[in-house]
Amino acid sequence: MRMRRLLSIFLLIGVLFSSYAAFADGAPAPDPSGASTGGAADVVGATANAPTADELKNLATNEPLAAKLADVVGHNRIAINIVWTLVCGFLVMFMQAGFAMAETGFTQAKNAGHTMAMNFMIYALGMLGYWVCGFALQMGGVGGVASLGGATSLSHEFTVHLFGRDFGLFGTTGFFLSGMSYDAVIFTVFLFQMVFMDTTATIPTGSMAERWTFKSFVFYGFFISAIVYPLYANWVWGGGWLTQLGKEFGLGHGHLDFAGSSVVHMTGGVAGLAGAMVLGPRIGKFKADGTPVAIPGHHIPMAVVGCFILAFGWFGFNTGSTLAGGDLRIGIIATNTMLAGGAAAFSSMLYMWFRYGKPDISMSANGLLAGLVAITAPCAFVNSVSAVIIGLIAGVLVCVSVFFIERRLKVDDPVGAISVHGVNGAWGVLSLGLFADGTYGDGLNGVAGAVRGLFYGDASQFGAQVVGTVTNFVFVFIAMYVFFKVFDKIVPMRVSREHEIEGLDEHEVAVVAYPDFGVRKPH
Fold first, then answer.
1. What is the average pLDDT across 341-359?
2. Which of the residues 83, 86, 283, 348 has an alpha carbon 20 to 30 A from that of 330?
3. What is the pLDDT of residues 452-472, one digit of tens each?
4. Residues 129-145 pLDDT 10s
5. Domains, the chain, ranges and CATH?
6. Which long-range contacts (C-beta less than 8 Å, at least 24 apart) are formed by 311-314?
C-alpha cells in the first residue's frame, strides 16, 4: 500500500511539473488525435520547388481552394513522415531479438536462459525507466520536430550560463508522457527514441554476461535508461550543449551523430566496459599468469542468425533517423549502411585468416556489426567509397580491439560488445569528421552550409567530433563505474562461485534453457 501511494505521488508530481512547465510559457495545446497536425505551413521547404511562406499567404487570400489543398498536402506529408518513423522504430525494436540470439549464442549453454532473460527484460525495464523520466531528460527541451509537424511543447531545457554562453544540460518536460506531452507527434518521437535507448541498455548484458545477478541487472536497467543515456543523448540529439559547439565555438555543425554511433553504441560499450571491470572475469577465463583462456560460445549458428537480424534492423536504425520518408537521402543512407557492414565482415575475415591461419566466423559476424556501428554516425554524410573504407577499418579494428581488451586490459567480455559497440562507436563519430563530403546537412544545428569533414576542407567538424567522443567516454564511464561500484557495496553484483560453475539458469531465472542436456540433481 505504501509503495502504491509513493508511486501515485511521484506520477502526480511528474504530470503537474510537465503541465506547468508547458503552460508557463504559453505553449500550444497538444494534439492527441493527430487530426490537427500538419498543414500548409508544413509544405514550406519540403522540396526545392515548394511554395514559400509568402506564396502561401497569397494563396490564402486569393485562392481559398488552393489554400485548402495546401493544408491537405501538408497534413499528408506529416502523416507519411510519422508512418515512416514508426515503421523504422518497429524494425529497431526487432533488433532486440537479434541481440538476444547473438549474445546467447556467444555464451555458454548453462547460462543461455539467463542471457535470454536479460535481453528480454531490458526491453521492459528500459521502456518504463525511459517513460518515467528518461524521455523528458533527453527530449524535453528539443523545441519541436519539424519533419513531424509538432512536438513544440517539448521546449524547456535546463541550462547553465558559463563564459557568456548557455549550455543545455537536460530537458524538463515530458515526464510520464503526460500533461502537455499527450500529443500524437510526441508519442511517435517517444517510441522511436525509446527503441534506440533500449539498444544501448542491451549492450552491457553481453559484456557482463555469465556472472551477473539478475537483481542487480534490474536496477542497472532503470538507471541507464532513466538517467545516464538520456543525459548524453540530450547533449547530442535534444538540443544540449554539444549541438551548440558550432554556433557558439565555430566547431563545424557541432557534434554530429546521425543515428547513434556515440549516443547509442559508444554509450553502451563504455557502460559495458565499466561493468565488466567491476564484475571481474569469469572463473577460468585467465590462468594464474594472466594468459586468457578461450571460453567458446555454445551456439554459433544462433549467434550468426542474430547478427543477420541486427543487420536487417539496422536499415530502420539508420534510415529512420531522417524522421522523414520524404527525405530521399534514405536511399544513400541504406546503401552506405549495407556496404560498410559487408566491408567490415570481409576485412574481419581476412584479418583472422592471415593472422591466425583460418577465418573465424564469429569474428566475421562481429565484424559485420562493427561496420554497422561505425557507419551509423556518418551514414547520411558520406559517399559509398568512404562507407566501404569506414567499414574495412572497423572490421580490422574490432579484431585488434578484442585481443587488446582481453590480453592487455585483462577485461573479460564474453561477446566482444566493448569492441563492437564502444571502440567502433568512437570510430564512427570520428569518421564523420573525416569523410563527410559536403552534400548533406545544410542548416543542421543552426549552422548554414552542408557538413564537411577534414578530408573535404573542414577541420573544425573533426574537432567537434573529438569533443563529443571524449565527453562520452569521460561522462559515461565515470557515471557507470561509480554506479556499479556503489551498488556492488550495497547488493553484491557477482553470483556465487558455486552458481557460476553450475550455471545461472536455474539459480537466477528458474528456467534451464536446455534441460535435456544436463544432469538434473535429485530433489
1. 97
2. 348
3. 999 999 999 999 999 999 999
4. 999 999 999 999 999 99
5. 75-504 (1.10.3430.10)
6. 311/98, 311/341, 311/368, 311/369, 311/372, 312/91, 312/94, 312/98, 313/91, 313/92, 313/94, 313/95, 313/98, 314/95, 314/341, 314/372, 314/376
